[in-house]
Write a structure and sequence with these properties.
The chain has a six-stranded mixed beta sheet, with helices on both faces. It is of the alpha/beta class. The protein is globular, with a radius of gyration of 16 Å.
Length: about 190
């Protein structure tokens, strides 16, 4: 009954400081009445996204995508834990610490005005429905279920935001190249 979504983020860092994070692409698969989302279709789309953007990191929620990540891994197309092969897949468990990190990344990026988004009604709907909920470990973002799902695109956005924020915060080393020649860093989540 849940949708599947992927968000791709581009990170452009100036020579000093944190970079700007831009929404580069997104896609949503919604189940139709009586059928589920076709995971092979999603797998092929992830490979196409990586071929297009050369992802540095692909965060995934193990609750929803561990089986898909395992299939991609067994086909030699990904590696859980980052690095390696074609898809740099990183499992982000929904622990209290990770949920708070994700919420902090999203809130800080909006507050710091580091985000660049293109118009997307579905993403806008999911983001405006987010609520901050206090828990014993701190706080997290929650999305109430509605006729459109459970904030699936917003969740993809949040996990991609975690990857993009971590990429943007890494020190940048420039040797023998102009600042204008630097490639973009892409991060995604599904």
């Amino acid at each position: 009954r849940d949708a599947c979504a992927v968000c791709v983020r581009a990170v452009r860092r100036p020579h000093d400081g944190h970079g700007h994070i831009r929404l580069a692409s997104h896609q949503v698969w919604r189940p139709t009445k009586g059928s589920k989302v076709q995971l092979p279709e999603v797998e092929h789309a992830l490979i196409r996204v990586h071929d297009r953007f050369k992802l540095r990191r692909l965060n995934f929620d193990p609750w929803e995508a561990r089986h898909m990540a395992s299939r991609l891994q067994s086909a030699g197309l990904g590696r859980i834990g980052g690095g390696g092969f074609r898809l740099p897949m990183v499992e982000v468990t929904p622990s209290g610490q990770n949920l708070q990190r994700i919420a902090s990344c999203v809130i800080e990026a909006f507050n710091d005005r580091r985000l660049r988004l293109y118009p997307c009604e579905a993403l806008h709907r999911d983001l405006t429905r987010f609520r901050v909920e206090e828990r014993s470990y701190g706080f997290r973002l929650v999305s109430p279920r509605d006729a459109y799902g459970h904030g699936d695109l917003g969740t993809a956005f949040s996990l991609a935001m975690l990857a993009a924020t971590e990429l943007a915060a890494k020190p940048r080393v420039v040797i023998g190249r102009s600042l204008f020649d630097q490639p973009k860093n892409y991060a995604a989540q599904f």
